[in-house]
Specification:
single chain, alpha/beta, Aminopeptidase, Glucose Oxidase, domain 1, eight-stranded mixed β-sheet
Length: about 550
């Protein structure tokens, strides 16, 4: 009790020192919600002065999906660059970074069961897979090759076959709503969570690595990579026509994909990303909805001959550097100091990349539009960055941070690192902002408490000390810079849209998007005008190349 009594006055004092311009907050709300009306999608920008749904239309229906380095990704980047320039932002450019990810798209797909009866199959070619060079028809077989011994088991038995490579998926009958918002009790639990004792923090991104399947021998990363490459060569040498994998989750026609690349650890400690399709030996690979896959598997298990037909056209585009979309509002009195806002621009190709992460990109663009349209005088420069290559391991933001702020291998800060204040990120779909993760930076708590107090009509402003991972704020946190991700309502992100064929414009909630735009714009403005830069945690120790725990993106 004594400790609480001593801390309380300090927190009150900190809040009193943190100035919030309520008049500016009102202007931001009015810019997003007030003014004249707008039309649907590609016409007006939604109700009031908001343009956020118009941005969403362009990023999804018009230019999506945005698989890294695909033609759609490039076209979306060109559109965003042009739109930002039209709004009058400064230093608008596509900042390139070296990429080993090939450009790829599929231009045609047809999958059908032709015997014992006809059925159109819901499936999508896995990213960077080869095509079929015309229609191919073959008998379906189950061949779960998980160990080197399995290669001998199926040798000579797969020529001209279409191979089901995974076990049938058990689909629990859905009895709970697909979409939900956090309850007050859940938010209270999030707020009270203490720092984790080890590994990645909680939250959507704090998932550990995948272990082996139950009953399967564990392999080291290098052993698994070597075996996967050997299996890919095996498919080709055996004359397999197409390989199929079941969507591991989802139901009612929802297909979850992603994860089309794997990493290999090189002898020098660096990591190399190898497209899984390349390790397939050039054999086309299709991800299929579980219901269709399971039917085929059941027929095969009951010794009913099944013939499948696929016609897949894919296109590889010569490698070129990837890019991040960058734009600025120059600071008035401290232009060398920097506040950043962003989200990842790339997506998977299964849907149109709406909730992951067209939403975060649209909010960041809308924040810049609002702040520029209001002609607000901000001390620090505000810079937006929309990242490429997040889904392949936060590649775009890591490359940017390495170039501008610090290399994790040496951890020697640049001048830009010294002048940096804070970075704000959105990458949890369409759900309203309910609070923020401190990412272990307890010194930020009283600052955020004051900022949320001015927005209490929009959000409860829950603040938790815990970390969340799997997205681009980690690139900043990894070099000791204040990087923050907001807490958002889950909605149907994990159950329906994340990396799925249902990640489309329809899953975006306009009211939620407008709320997020107001809150993030207010946070960016406050960070750009507060007297001091954001407080920081200690600079992390240098990490040998390739040993930074680089998980995939979300």
């Amino acid at each position: 009790m004594v400790v609480v009594l001593l801390l309380a006055p300090l927190l009150v004092l900190a809040q009193q020192q943190e100035k919030v311009d309520l008049n500016v907050i009102h202007k931001i709300k009015t810019a997003e919600l007030g003014g004249g009306g707008g039309g649907f999608g590609g016409g007006g920008g939604g109700r009031g002065g908001s343009q956020v749904m118009n941005i969403m239309y362009n990023l999804t229906d018009r230019y999506g999906p945005r698989l890294t380095n695909s033609p759609q990704f490039k076209a979306a980047g060109a559109w965003a660059e042009g739109q930002l320039k039209e709004w009058g932002l400064s230093n608008v450019h596509l900042e390139k970074w070296a990429s080993d990810i090939p450009g790829w798209q599929y231009t045609s797909y047809s999958g059908n069961m032709v015997e014992p009866t006809y059925q159109a199959l819901i499936g999508i070619p896995v990213a960077w897979t080869a095509g079929t060079s015309g229609p191919v028809t073959g008998e379906a077989v189950l061949a779960q090759i998980q160990t080197p011994a399995d290669l001998d088991k199926f040798h000579g038995k797969l020529k001209g076959k279409i191979v089901l490579t995974t076990a049938p998926v058990e689909l629990p009958f859905p009895t709970t709503p697909l979409a939900r918002r956090y309850t007050p009790d859940e938010l209270a639990e999030i707020a009270l969570e203490i720092l984790p004792t080890g590994g990645a923090g909680g939250g959507r991104g704090g998932r550990g690595g995948r272990g082996g399947a139950a009953g399967q021998p564990q392999m080291t990363q290098e052993e698994q990579r070597a075996f996967t490459a050997r299996r890919g060569t095996f498919w080709k040498d055996e004359g397999v026509l197409v390989t199929l994998q079941a969507s591991a989750r989802g139901e009612s026609g929802t297909l979850f994909g992603g994860g089309a690349q794997t990493s290999t650890r090189n002898p020098d400690g660096t990591s190399t990303r190898v497209p899984l399709a390349t390790l397939q030996g050039g054999v086309p690979q299709v991800s299929m909805t579980a219901e269709n896959y399971n039917r085929i598997a059941r027929l095969v298990e009951h010794n009913v001959p099944v013939k499948l037909q696929f016609d897949i056209k894919t296109e590889f585009i010569p490698n070129y550097d990837s890019f991040n979309v960058v734009a600025e509002i120059p600071g008035a009195t401290k232009p060398n100091e920097l506040v950043m806002v962003g989200g990842h621009f790339d997506s998977w190709h299964y849907g149109t990349g709406a909730t992951d992460n067209g939403a975060g990109s649209a909010i960041a663009m809308e924040v810049m539009r609002i702040l520029k349209s209001l002609n607000l005088k901000m001390d620090r420069t505000v810079r937006m960055a929309l990242w490429g290559g997040e889904e392949e391991g936060l590649l775009g933001s890591r490359a940017y941070v390495k170039e501008h702020f610090a290399d994790t291998a040496t951890m020697k800060p640049t001048t830009e690192h010294d002048n940096f204040s804070s970075y704000f990120n959105i990458d949890n779909g369409t759900g309203k902002i309910r609070g923020i993760y401190l990412q272990g930076n307890e010194m930020a708590r009283p600052i955020f408490e004051s900022w949320f107090a001015a927005l209490k009509d929009l959000t409860p402003g829950v603040i938790t000390i815990r970390n969340t991972g799997g997205t681009d704020h980690q690139s900043y946190d990894g070099v000791g810079l204040p990087g923050f991700q907001f807490i958002q309502d889950p909605m149907d992100y994990d159950t329906r849209t994340h990396h799925s064929n249902m990640d489309t414009y329809e899953r975006i909630q306009q009211g939620d998007m407008e709320q997020m735009a107001i809150i993030e714009a207010a946070f960016v403005y406050n960070a750009a005008t507060r007297p001091d830069k954001f407080p920081r945690k200690e600079l992390p120790a240098a990490q040998p190349a390739g040993r930074g725990g680089r998980g995939g993106g979300n």
